[in-house]
Amino acid sequence: MDDAEWVVLILDGKTFAGDQLVIALGVTATGEKRILGLVQTARENTRVIASFLRELGERGFPLDQPLLVVLDGSKGLRAAIREVFGDTVSVQRCQWHKRENVVRYLAKPDQPTWRRKLQAAWAHPAYADAKRALDRLHRELRVRNESAAASLAEGLEETLTLHRLGVFPELGTSFKTTNLIESVMARLEAKTHRVTRWRTSDQKLRWCAAALWATERQFRRVKGHRHLPLLKHALQHRLSLTHSAAA
Questions:
Q1: Considering only CA atoms, which of 96, 66, 247 is closest in space to residue 165?
Q2: Per-domain residue ranges of the chain
Q3: CA 110/CA 176 separation, integer angstroms
Q4: Of 3.40.50.150, 1.10.10.10, 3.10.50.40, 3.30.420.10, which CATH number belongs to 1-94+177-227?
Q5: Is the pLDDT of residue 234 over 90?
Q6: Which residues of 176-224 form beta strands (DSSP E)?
Q7: In a 10 Å sphere around its CB, with 0-12 CB exposed, 13-18 middle and 19+ buried, how is residue 59 labelled?
Q8: Angle at 13 between CA 12 and CA 16, to 5 degrees
């Protein structure tokens, strides 16, 4: 992986031609997006993903330095990140996935209103304001639908990681969701949708890898890339505080 300085790792699992693929996308300190690798798995299994992450480490991706890791709500992905990286990284949970997980417990006529309410809460640039707004919505949901309230509470703090690091206004557009990988998968499907029969798993993986690397040549730098030094500094500061507290 040459001598690139990595700041962000985005992981997401997608269904491709009947299989589950987990794709790793890295972002460098200068804002360049690169496909780091992919693994085929029946589901987002902790053991499989942890092994995949260690393979990335063997190929040069840093496993011992501060990073922002962006994930959806998969427990398997989160557990693998904890196993491989420990407390070195800061995890940003995808706000879009969290929002959809919450509103699915609500009646369909109520869902658009609650999408707007949740988005408005996360849109506050300061951590304290966003947390206060989300706590207010949580109290409201507890009266209306206890299951939706529990869904919102689960992992809520990790949806506010960019806020807590103080870089949400500058980098929230790029890293508050897993949209960067969603976009990659949309391009992948556009390149391979005409294939209706896959002979073997190996053929599927080779086609997928080739299409991903062809897509990578069309990548542009992430929005807000000029602010990535702020993120790097915030990640290093958070880690130093964590280590000081543990000492």
A1: 66
A2: 1-94+177-227, 95-156
A3: 24
A4: 3.30.420.10
A5: yes
A6: none
A7: exposed
A8: 135
Residue pair 152/141 in contact (Cβ under 8 Å)? The answer is: yes
| Residue corresponding to tokens 């103080």 | 166
The C-alpha atoms of residue 163 and residue 95 are separated, in whole angstroms, by: 12
Dihedral, CA of residue 177, residue 183, residue 185 and residue 188, to nearest 10: -170
- Overall average pLDDT of the 48-74 stretch: 93
**Averaged pLDDT, 86-100:** 96
Sorting pLDDT into bands at 50, 70 and 90, what band is 16? low
Residue 181's pLDDT band (boundaries 50, 70, 90)? Answer: confident
Look up the pTM and report it. Answer: 0.90
Q: Tell me the C-alpha distance between 144 and 138, whole Å.
A: 10
Rounded to an integer, what distance in angstroms lies between the CA atom of residue 35 and that of residue 212? 7
